[in-house]
Amino acid sequence: MTTWTTLAAALFPQGHTITEQDDFLNGVAQVDGQTVAVIGTTRHAAIGVEIALAQAQAVLRTVRDAPGRPIVLLVDTQGQRLRHRDEMLGIQRYMAHLGKCLELARQRGHRIVALVYDQALSGGFVSTGLMADGCYALPDATIRVMGLAAMARITKVPEAELAQLARSHPVFAPGPENYTRMGALQAIWHGDLAAALANALAQVRPTDERAALGLARGGRQNAYPVMAAVMGDVAAAS
């Protein structure tokens, strides 16, 4: 398990002012001579309405007060908080709001890089890490959208059959290696984390290349061809 303080020391040797409050991380740091905004979670945070709003507010403050400043997302979450109160308040809307704020930041010229340093599950990952321009992970990170037991209950497919499928199909399997094969992760970081982050920020591109990466890496064979066919039909119709 990598603590956020240990991670911050490795990522930001030039200094940072990150603070933790109720599993929410926020502050600024220096990366290769430039200031970046840091927003994230820790202690396997369950994303309830409060922490979703706190993250969204931090994004909007950055857009308002520091135009163009890169944003680094530090991801460690068990997913959305499973409480009746959060469900009744519409937790899905709060998480969607967070995703929209990140998209607004991107449209305003903010480069966004996410790092899964411990755990990334379910909607807490979808609304943060998967909203970044580039998402990366540490080698021992735990990543999955849904566990096989839960998937078996939802799909009515026996868990043993899903476990067998997971051996050859990364869509069913957890772990950073499988998410890298699918293109959801750009890469897994080893060694000098500060250099890896600086390089990731420098390589941010305006287009979403995850489907193409998934095809090239053999993890998702159909997503990119289907997207290309649809876009070709749209272009032909226009």
TrEMBL record:
MF terms in GO: lyase activity
Classification via Pfam families: MdcE (PF06833)
Coiled-coil stretches: none
InterPro entries registered for this protein in UniProt: ClpP/crotonase-like_dom_sf, Malonate_gamma
Top-level division of the source organism's lineage: Bacteria
UniProt record, GO biological process: carbohydrate metabolic process
SUPFAM superfamilies in the cross-refs: ClpP/crotonase
UniProt keyword terms in alphabetical order: Lyase
Lyase recorded as keyword: yes
Signal peptide: none
Root EC class: lyase
Gene3D superfamilies, alphabetized: 2-enoyl-CoA Hydratase, Chain A, domain 1
EC number(s) given by UniProt: 4.1.1.88
Database matches in NCBIfam families: malonate_gamma
Protein name as it appears in the record: Biotin-independent malonate decarboxylase subunit gamma
Source species taxonomy: Bacteria, Pseudomonadati, Pseudomonadota, Betaproteobacteria, Burkholderiales
Encoding gene, per UniProt annotation: mdcE
